[in-house]
Amino acid sequence: MTGRATDVVISGVGVISACGATGAAHLAALDGTRPKPDRAAFNPYSVYRAAPFDVAEAIPSKSDRRQMEPWQHLGVAAARQALGDAGLLGTAALDSLYLNVCASGGAREVEVDFEVLADLRASPDPDADLVAAQARKLRPSFLLGQLSNMLAGNLAIILGVGGGARTFMGDDMAGVDAMADAIARVAHGQSDRIMVGGVLDAERPDLMLAQALGDRLASDAVPSVLDPARRGVVPGSVAAFVVLERAKAAQDRGAGPLAGVSPVSVAAEGPALEGILGQVASGPSFDAIYTSVSGAQPVTADAVTGLRSAHPGTPVIATADLVGHAVEAAFPFAVALSALSVRSGRAGRVLATTACESGAAALVVEAMA
Q1: 3-state secondary structure string across 338-352
Q2: What sequence ranges are listed for the domain Beta-ketoacyl synthase-like N-terminal (predicted)?
Q3: What pLDDT does residue 145 have?
Q4: Which pLDDT tens digit goes with each residue over 348-364?
């Protein structure tokens, strides 16, 4: 990438996962021993736990820490790391920094859910009692207050970010939409810089229960996500943010190292990854492919087959084999890992991809000329 005024670059990366709480730890995990999932906490299901990090350093105010759930601690810490890496933390540039944040809802109060269900079993009018419980016990305002817009608000307040925010949630494609929107806005001059990313706290009984009831989870020991025999998802706690900038804006302020990033090519309907690879795969070959496919079938096997067919001999790394699957945060993590690889000199050109039941996406991260 040449660094034209319209080019978009990644100037900062923040990641926390089972691999560690720094970018260096994630690069080391690619070469060394990869983390293993916890198979005891939710037996027979597994989960990748986030590595310990200093919550007090990321969120100095005790009152701020108390009013936030663990997934928001994760998100704020990774976002602070990204801003520090970009050289923006505490600078006037934060006044015009925009946010694109993707995350699922907050944790349910499982004890209250069980209490309501027990009451309904003995109720002569369960429908009426359920409606009453929604007002008295289930606290809908609590759930509404824990959506991704609350995380965006906390990022703005705690880190001093003064631009606007857009929030995304739903499934893997929410992370794709957040990234695609941010890259397009920077490329078209609507903003000099946007921080984009997502977070998932996978270590939640309610989340694990919901996925188990949907028969989505892999049980017991499982093969690699890249193995056609793989069946099911192993969730992982992940927070990943990148700072996107116009190349000229980043260069003018002396930011570096930088990694160029292409627009996101998206297939909005169905797991048609093969159909979009040609849109982003022109030019030199890739040093690596990072894919955030989940392990759910048949979409995972189809995507992996398509990648290997289109790029024979190129190493394919499934991010879920490193950190577990992070839903909304999965694609931002793949992009962040790609940027770490390029900015460190480990790779010159990386393809970041994803595919799920509702769509597929790919983009290129490459070294600046």
Answers
A1: HHHHHHCCCCCEEEE
A2: 52-249
A3: 47
A4: 999 999 999 888 999 99
Q: Residue 200 has what pLDDT? A: 94
Residue 195 phi, psi (nearest 5): -95, 130
Q: For 177-187, how does the pLDDT look when each residue is reduced to its tens digit (9 = 90+)? A: 999 999 999 99
DSSP collapsed to 3 states, the chain: CCCCCCCEEEEEEEEEECCECCHHHHHHHHHCCCCCCEEEEECCEEEECCCCCCHHHHCCCHHHHHCCCHHHHHHHHHHHHHHHHHCCCCCHHHHHCEEEEEECCCCCCHHHHHHHHHHHHCCCCHHHHHHHHHHHCCCHHHHHCCCHHHHHHHHHHHHCCCCCEEEECCCHHHHHHHHHHHHHHHHCCCCCEEEEEEEECCCCHHHHHHHHHCCCECECCCCCCCCCCCCCECEECEEEEEEEEEHHHHHHCCCCCCEEECCCEEECCCCCHHHHHHHHCCCCCCCEEEECCCCCCCHHHHHHHHHHHHCCCCCEEEHHHHHCECHHHHHHHHHHHHHHHHHCCCCCEEEEEEEECCEEEEEEEEECC
